[in-house]
Amino acid sequence: QVTLVESGGGSVQAGGSLRLSCAVSVYTYSTNCVAWFRQAPGKKREGVAVIYTGGGRPRYVDSVKGRFTISRDNAQNSVYLQMDSLKPEDSGMYYCAAASACGTWLLTTMYNTWGQGTQVIVSS
C-alpha cells in the first residue's frame, strides 16, 4: 500500500520561497502520477502541479506557472514542489496525492492516495 508524507511547509513573507517534499513509500501502478493540491480555509481543494512517473511534461495550474516547479527524485522516492515568488494567495494546506490514471489531473476524484498535508503561510 502506498503512503505519502509531506514536509517543508512553514511561514514566509511574500516574495520568498519554500520547497515542499512528498515522500512516496513505493512506486507502483497506483503512483503513475503524483500531484500537489492546496486548500485555503473556506475554499475548495485545487490542483497546483502534477508529474508523471512514466515521463512527459509536468503540468501546472495557471496561477503558479513560472513560479512553482515540480520535480521528482526516484532514488529518494520523493516528489518536490519548489515554490518561488510566493504570494499571500498561495497560503493554504498543501497535499500530495497519487493516482493510477492521470487523464484529468485537476480532479481530486482521480486520486486514491493522499498525504496528511503541510501548512504554507505567506504573509504580505
Structure, described:
The chain is an all-beta fold and 124 residues long. The chain contains no helices and eleven strands. Strands 2, 4, 5, 6, 9, 10 and 11 form a seven-stranded mixed sheet that branches. Strands 1-3-8-7 form a four-stranded antiparallel sheet, with no helix packed on it. The protein is globular. It starts with a strand and ends with a strand.
TL;DR?
This protein is mainly β and 124 residues long.
Shape: globular
Could you tell me the strand content as a percent range? over 45%
* Helix fraction bin: under 10%
The major pleated sheet works out as: 7 strands, mixed
How many strands appear in the DSSP assignment?
11
Low-pLDDT regions: none
How many DSSP H or I helices?
0
End-to-end distance, in Å? Answer: 40 Å
Radius of gyration: 13 Å
Helix-strand sequence: EEEEEEEEEEE
How would you classify the helix and strand content by structural class?
mainly beta
Q: Give the overall pLDDT as a whole number.
A: 94
SSE topology:
Elements: E1 4-7, E2 10-13, E3 18-24, E4 33-39, E5 46-52, E6 59-60, E7 68-73, E8 78-83, E9 92-99, E10 113-114, E11 118-123
Parallel strand pairs: 2-11
Antiparallel strand pairs: 1-3, 3-8, 4-5, 4-9, 5-6, 7-8, 9-10, 9-11
